[in-house]
Every structure is written in structure tokens, then in C-alpha cells.
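Predict structure. Chain length: 279.
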Amino acid sequence: MKIKSNQLSVIIFIIIISIIAFTLVFSGCGKKTQLKKKTDLAMVDNYNISISDYQMKKAELSPYIPENNDNKQNILNLLIDNTLLLKEAETYKINQSPEFLKTIEHFWRQSLIQHLLNKKIIEIRESTKIPLKDIVSLYDKLKFKYEMRIIKYTTNLNLILPQKAKDIDSYIESNSKQIDSDSEWFIADLFDIPSEIFFYFQNHTIKNNIWNSINSDDTTFAFFIKNTQANNIQPFEKMKDAVERLLKEQTEQTALNEWMKSLRIKSDIIINKELLKKL
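Prediction complete.
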């Protein structure tokens, strides 16, 4: 079995701390520290290491090390060393330093956000159902590749885009300062286009040789399809699960984005734009 670099690092680290812990445990013989509870696996001075501590560390390391008697001792040695290092950190009063407290606050916030997002994603996933007609509709659109061009610009510019493909190159060149991004002409199927355009394909009838616009408060995506060509894809029954999965992922992402927008709408947000410009 090939060991990945991060797995090897963990294994090497465990071996090193095991040697150190072995020395420390035996050097501590003769001290009067005793186990206080039946659920205590070890004691380091007045600090206990419980069975639950061991089980959590074991679960954390299980992808990297096999379960055997030697590694049981290695995991315990790691917990003992961690406890020794925590005691030493307290001696230096690192746990009271502003830098440490700020790090803890940042970690707490990020963990809280991640737990909330995970909870919301599960909630959305459980409520997302894709009708068969939507799967069939998207499959039919996957039968083609599209020669298209996508531009992005600030919504309030209200650009008047040319309606003939032959005029688009020169128009974009002459208005380049007003256009934030330009994909130039490319050919792709729906699996390879940006998500914003995918949603439009999913919910609209697509026509060639006209601009299709997707507007938000700040940004407009506009795309122009010049030509279509046949796309060699598998029969519906073989593609059904993949198409449904794609629709489900995109629908869940849309629901998550809409939820984030609703949080903004419900909140009173003030931005110091002058200060932002100076940063």
C-alpha cells in the first residue's frame, strides 16, 4: 500500500513522540501520582487522560495508522506528551497571551461557521427533490455543444450589446474598459460552462444569435450563442444519475446562496466605502 506524504508525517511524528514518552514515563517512576477514576486511562501529575480522550485521538488517527497493541501504546504516549506540553504552556502563561486568545477566537468563529453551514447543507439536501421532467430537459440540452461568448460587466452601465455575431469582437474591443471580463469565443457542453450560465440553461429556452443576460444587483453576465453542434453523449438511462446529481448539486448551491442573501436582507449592514477605498 502506498503511503501518502501526510500519512508518513503522522507516522514519523508518532514514532518520535513514542520514544520521548517512553523515556518520560519511566523517568517518572517513583512519583506518587495515582488514578482518580476507573475511567482514567492515565494521570500526568494532576491531569487525567480519560477513555474518551483516547477514543477521540484514536478516531482522529485511524486513517493513518492500523489498530494493534503497539499503536494503542503509541496513541496513549501521544496523549501523555500533549498533556506535558499543555502543562508547560501554562507555566509560560501562553494561554493568557493576547495572540493566543485571538487565535482561539478566530478558530472558534470558523468552527461555528462551518458547523452552521454543514447543518444548513444537510437541511437543504434533505429537502431537495429533482423532478424527472427537469432531468429529461437538461439531458436534451446536453445533446449539443455551444459556441458561445460570455462577458461580465457592472449592471448599472446598461450596455447596448450588438445583436450580430460579426460585430461582437469589435464592440468588446472598443468597450474593453467597461467590460470586467471576456471569455472570448469557446465551444463547450453544459458540464463545462460557468455555474451562473448553467442555471440559465436549466431554467430557460435557449436561442442562438441573441444576448442572454443574467442580472444581479452589482454584476451582469451576458452570453451569446453563435452556433450549436451535436454532442455525442450516452443514452438517457446511462446518463440519468449523473444529470440528476448535477441538477441536485446546482439546486442545493442556489438554495444556499439564496439563504445567504436572505441573511443580508434581514440585517442592517453599513459599509464605510471611503475607508474601503483607502485599504
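Summary: The chain has three domains: 5-94, 99-127, 132-266.
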